[in-house]
Specification:
The protein is of the alpha+beta class. It has a domain of 89 residues: Phosphatidylinositol 3-kinase Catalytic Subunit, Chain A, domain 1 (Ubiquitin-like (UB roll)), CATH 3.10.20. The protein contains three helices and six strands. The N and C termini lie far apart (60 Å).
């Protein structure tokens, strides 16, 4: 049920609003096909040309991504909490330049894709013998782990079985 008196009162309030501010009265468009799904003919094409590359102006970080080589203790004993590290291949190109906003989880996805690591395996990123949380940005790692050192920032990866 449509109430015309409410519609007329709303139009009057809108007209008074625009007149009080010295603006032209703008009427909302009344489309006959309001409830139809949009098609390619009636969809407004937006020009995203100035925002085509959202990371273009970001600060850039140079990375060196290498496989983690654990130093084996002389006595060969392993601690109880250590997990067995799986051997995986190395990257064909270990140097990478990326946005400072890139997160570790995105690097993990890249490694999974490039090295064909299955989803059930866990990929850890290590910097200065510290395992990095997956939702840290490269800028955070640079500031907390690599400050006052020469680029590129060296990150190591290791793959564990399902934990």
């Amino acid at each position: 049920m449509f109430c015309w008196s409410l519609c007329l009162a709303e139009e009057k309030r809108r007209r008074e609003f625009y007149e009080s501010r010295g603006m032209a009265v703008v009427k909302p468009s009344q489309d006959e096909n309001e409830n139809e799904k949009p098609t390619t003919e009636n969809v407004v094409k937006r020009d995203y040309s100035e925002n085509r590359n959202l990371y273009r102006d970001d600060e850039q970080v140079s990375l060196c991504v290498e496989r983690y080589e654990e130093s084996v203790e002389e006595n060969g004993d392993e601690t109880e909490d250590s997990r067995t590290t799986e051997t995986v291949g190395t990257l064909s190109k270990k140097y990478l330049r990326c946005s400072a906003r890139m997160m570790v989880v995105q690097l993990q996805k890249l490694l999974r894709m490039k090295l064909n690591i299955p989803e059930e395996k866990e990929v850890e990123i290590v910097c200065n013998e510290h395992v990095i949380h997956p939702f840290r940005t490269m800028k955070f790692i640079w500031i907390s782990e690599w400050l006052n050192r020469a680029p590129p920032m060296v990150l190591h990866y290791r793959v564990h079985g399902a934990s």
